[in-house]
Amino acid sequence: MLILLSELADEVSGALVGADVEVSGIAVDSRQVRPGDLFVVQRGAKADGSAFLPEARRRGAVAACATAPVSGVPTLVVSDPRDVVPVLAAALHGRPAGAMRLVGITGTLGKTSTALLIQAALSATGVPVGVIGSLGVQTGGRAMDTGMTTPDAPAIHRALRLMLDAGVATAVLEVTSHGIALRRVAGLTFALGVVTNLVPDEHLDFHRTPDHYLRTKARFLDMLQDGAPVVINHDDPRVRAMVDDAVLRRPRTVVAVTCGDDPGAAAAVSGLRTDAAGSAFALEIRRPLPRLDGGALEPCAVPLVLPVF
Q1: Number of domains in the chain
Q2: Which terminal residue of the chain has fewer beta carbons within 10 Å of its beta carbon, N or C?
């Protein structure tokens, strides 16, 4: 898609310095710049993005987004380039997320298997589903590597546009703590959330403290649509505490899944057997209904996509 730099400036209340050029893409990594791209100059933990401007220009960047005008290059000037990337990416691709049903999965472990099981279960009912996660972007029989579990915002919105154009209106996203902290998923709202588990001593090279990691993960719950349900691993006390706190602030339905015998869980696994071929278990679905009819049976298939923790 093509969009004028001035139109992007209007989206983020930025200032356009230089020619009003057409932009065909957005890049935050100079190594991924393609001809026609707007290169966003971000200050990282180890390097200043301005050092990569020459490479971005050699690769065909036609404009820059920075905190100050860049000599010889049309520049979109904003106070915080990183902060506006999700808005720019969404605008460039026609805001595909707004026309889609997004399922977000977060947690330390189990995100990929959960995403693939959800995709398989929904696909079996005739619902086309795309996935963005550790295995890249998967949609319509195509697979594209992104190099990250939660890719940057331009890659996410580009993938969502490809899905929507291919008739895929449901997408499952693996949402990492890095993706949340670095605002890769900012602006997205999820119709369903899943929290697998929380191991607080993971990724301390980035988060520095377990508390920061857990607080970052908790921000995922603020990305759910009002009233959107969240499916949780009821056996993880950290997950329960995080969700309980979030529900106090914004009430929503919590669907609890357990491998134990908690009577409050909506689904319970029992008789788990594992061997070289895989796992087998009984799944009990608990619904407050006096009888089962056709309308109650379809939702009972949904817990089959949930992982065993």
Answers
A1: 2
A2: N
